[in-house]
Amino acid sequence: MIGIRSAAVLVAVAALLVPAGATGHTPGLVFSGVGTATADGIIQPGEWQAAGTLGFQAALPGGGSVPGELLVMNDGSNL
Q1: Residue 30: which residues within 8 A CB-CB, separation 6 or more?
Q2: Sign of the torsion angle spanned by Cα atoms 40, 43, 44, 50
Q3: How many beta carbons lie within 10 A of that of residue 56, not counting itself?
Q4: Mean pLDDT highest for which of 29-33, 37-41, 53-57?
Q5: What is the 3-state secondary structure (H, E, C) of 23-45?
Q6: How many other C-beta atoms can be found within 10 angstroms of the C-beta atom of residue 31?
Q7: How confident is the model at residue 59 (pLDDT cuts 50, 70, 90)?
Q8: For residue 22, is pLDDT > 70?
């Protein structure tokens, strides 16, 4: 399980690792995910199951890459 602070740090690090020359999204790509996660610092099994996902390779400083995944979902009042 991952804490909310750890998750925020991972997101910030992932954002820094995306190459500066990254292109925009694929034309026609639309994320679709409906649900509400509980922001309690614990990712429960299935909590993000309905999220839209995008897998990517995050560049590492000095070369190489690691797999990353962006999860997106919203409900009537939360993104």
Answers
A1: none
A2: positive
A3: 15
A4: 53-57
A5: CCCCCCCCCCCECCCCCCCCCCC
A6: 14
A7: very high
A8: no
